[in-house]
Write a structure and sequence with these properties.
single chain; 8 helices; about 15% strand; alpha/beta
């Protein structure tokens, strides 16, 4: 899990990084500005950004807008600042910061990100019109030559693609070429 810590004072960023590292988390960057955080985040595929309300070059809300959608933000600030951030879908922790609350919150955010990542991997991939045409053509051929129902032809393609470790489009291509029917 990628974690970036951003505080105007580097001592504060290093302190939070140290707490997280002692608890087994890897902190990828400790930054003092939003621009530094964005540079650090640009090479990563999501994660958690822990920051304070006001950075030298931008507010937390601007940083949140510039970050990729696969990032979650943990804002550390006073009560009024935390109330403001909740409406934006940002997690907030009040000051003075308690170590156990920080660790519990980061653990919760890590679990949420892991669940979202798993859902993205399991989401069905959308096929182009050409790929869809090829799958439909292979199903039609299986229905015509092997007397499969449409559901049976679809299941056959799915099963073969899983067994071969290929996509349904690749499997459809193989079937069409084997049966000599690439219309």
């Amino acid at each position: 899990m990628n974690i970036i810590v951003v505080f105007p004072k580097i001592e504060n960023a290093k302190s939070v990084r140290s707490i997280l590292q002692r608890s087994g988390y890897t902190v990828d960057a400790a930054c003092t500005s939003g621009a530094q955080a964005l540079r650090a985040a640009s090479g990563m595929d999501g994660g958690i950004v822990i920051c304070t309300y006001r950075l030298p070059d931008m507010l937390y809300s601007e940083l949140y807008e510039y970050l990729a959608p696969r990032y979650e933000m943990l804002l550390i600030g006073c009560g009024a600042q935390i109330e403001e951030c909740v409406t934006m879908g940002i997690v907030g922790l009040g000051t003075p910061l308690k170590v156990h609350e920080l660790l519990q919150t980061v653990a919760m955010m890590t679990q949420v990100l892991a669940r979202k990542k798993k859902q993205r991997r399991q989401a069905p991939r959308h096929r182009s019109q050409e790929e869809q045409r090829m799958v439909e053509q292979a199903k039609g051929l299986l229905m015509e030559r092997n007397h499969f129902s449409e559901d049976a032809a679809h299941r056959y393609l799915q099963k073969r693609s899983m067994e071969n470790g290929t996509s349904m489009t690749e499997t459809a291509q193989m079937i069409l070429s084997m049966m000599g029917e690439n219309r």
